[in-house]
Amino acid sequence: MLKRIPHTYVIIFSLILLSAIATWFVPGGEYINNPASDSGSELIYQQIESKPQTWQIFSAFFSGFERQAGIIIFILMIGGAFWIVNDSKAIDTGIQSFIKKTQKLENIKFFKKLGVGNIIVTFTMLMFSVFGAVFGMSEETIAFIIILVPLAISLGYDSITGVGMVFFASALGFAGAVLNPFTIGIAQGLADLPLFSGIEYRLFCWLVINVLGIGFMLRYANKVKKNPKKSPVYEEDSYWRQHISENQNEQNNHTYKASWIVWAFLSIVFVVVSFIFPITNLKIGVGEGFSWYFIPLLTVLFVISGYITLKKSSPLFVLNLLGFTILFLILGVLGYQWYIKEIAALFFSMGILSGIAMSYKTDKIANLFIAGAQDIMSAALVVGLAGGIIIILEDGNIIHSILHSMASKMQDAGEIAAVGIMYVIQTIINIVIPSGSAKAALTMPIMAPFSDLIGLSRQATVMAFQFGDGFTNLITPTSGVLIGVLGIAKIPYAKWIKWIMPFMIILIIVGFLLLIPTVTMDLNGF
What we know:
Layout: H1 8-22, E1 29-33, E2 43-47, H2 56-67, H3 69-87, H4 90-105, H5 109-114, H6 116-135, H7 142-154, H8 159-176, H9 181-190, H10 199-226, H11 238-247, H12 257-276, E3 280-282, E4 290-292, H13 294-310, H14 314-336, H15 340-357, H16 362-375, H17 377-395, H18 399-407, H19 415-432, H20 436-453, H21 458-471, H22 480-489, H23 493-515, H24 517-520
Antiparallel strand pairs: 1-2, 3-4
């Protein structure tokens, strides 16, 4: 008989407890700016008094909430907004329509041989992987979980497959980091390297990582489709199956007058915005970008598609509204550097406008939003709890000591061993500091000069940071994004770890093998 898997809250609180115990044995230390450095960016290590943590393990929950407040509020607003959209049956209508169209494709020999489900999973993963590699999509994946998990289950898969199509794929792209300004951009800047240099080899690495990741996901997805009970989250997915079953036979083909009003209002707003921002510059990385009339184009498309969908039903119009919300999300991130505050506001307004379009009374919209926030509250709470792990390690003054201890072990290593040690260091550090930007700011001023002393290419050092930062995003319990995604999908953290660990082992080994050419071959940019 299998032992009962501990609750996610129990696992994370245990990690907080272990972190607190470590503060009693690991000496305190910190990196400070070297006053003798001309650039002012060189860091030196100094020992300081450690601060053993005791009662703070109980206050870490509160402090974690403060630290992760942005993601927590983002999750609650997304949950409330989507609850309103879900009540309109718009997403269910879209999924049912999508399933019917894919079933028709099964009659075509070519698609039947490849498998329509395989094609959907592959192209969806490639799209989100590109997003991760190009502009560092991470927190944004939370909003797509509520859409793609029900879609995956409707296709005969499970919630893990749904998460794989979005978060897992985005994380693969994030690790490949072809043009990610938040990791590669910052790391190369701190290492005094030309921005996005060595892109040819990183693109090759991205391809290798995605072939492995998509292949792993397809193999698992097909196993679940053949026998759904083989899914480790089969019981947890009863929540989604029940939701789909309750709504699949409910059809609303009515078009409310309020929907026409929302369409007219938004059309006017978009026209005004088009005159204010006629040209949008989409920036990928730190280049000049590509400027064009993107907002006017979306405005024209919305006016036309809104009119067409309103001729059919209000739920279809709401689905159309959701589609344009996603398009404006991409435009906002690439063209106007939006982050979770702007994205949360975008989905919040979508939720309210969806309720109005369905002719809901204001009290009903408010009650639906509250119900959605309540339903997703457990995911928000666990994000705050996970943030407490970092708080304990930082307040105990031991994060920098751990980094310094590991870095000193590279002194007498050869090139391959040195880049491997750097890779291990970055991997371990990412478990306690999941922010790629913060980790780059902390580690690169130390690793880059150190790589010069041992004759290692700075570009290889950046690659070690890239892989160490990217891969463990799939498992680190301190990541608010991972914990939030799993909470929304109703996947226990322990079951996710058990499922993904075999692939993580393969991925970490492949990452090391991909680092070897950076020190043994004459690669462009290295």
